[in-house]
Amino acid sequence: MIAKLIEQLLRELGENPKREGLERTPERVEKAFRYLTSGYDRDVKDVLNDAMFVEEYDEMEIVKDIDFSSLCEHHLLPFVGKVHIAYMPNRKIVGLSKIPRLVDVFSRRLQVQERLTTQIANSLNEILEPRGVAVVMEAVHLCMLVRGVEKQNSKAVTSAMLGAFRDRPETRAEFMELIKPGQGLHI
Ligand SMILES: [Zn+2]
Questions:
Q1: Which of 15, 30, 61, 75 is catalytic?
Q2: Is the pLDDT at 104 greater than 80, yes or no?
Q3: Cα-to-centroid distance, 140 and ligand 1 (Å)
Q4: What are the pLDDT digits (tens) for 2-12?
Q5: pTM, two decimal places
Q6: Cα(121)–Cα(124) distance, rounded to whole angstroms?
């Protein structure tokens, strides 16, 4: 069905959808859009539940520089960037490799960056019931880039701070320091 619509779209654009280069484009676009919106079929709980365990560890856990891409719901064009996530555990810990998969659940939907940031923070907050959650996202929006709305390299930065990260400036400052480019291990 999406393929049919794309064929129509090509016609509306004044193209010939039957010419060689475009012949398989409708199918490819359908596949791409199915993939880019596959997060609708996934549930955060399914991603995290089998990876949670109880541990008496109460220091900040951080996963930084997680690559993500999402689709801007205003233009259906991608925005692409990095997300940094931290939480202060309250007995419940999640395998760190699951955090990027949690990001995928929400990023593979039609989004605005602000909502994406909040959804990631809120879902971690609900599931892990930690003492705090912090999410910072920085992204380049193709809809801005191609229309020259902003300088070519400008990034949109959004953040969501919950619990200790909202209430304790020193906790927030520690997180912000750790996610600075060039901080931490380089492997
Ligand atoms: Zn847009």
A1: 75
A2: yes
A3: 10
A4: 999 999 999 99
A5: 0.91
A6: 5
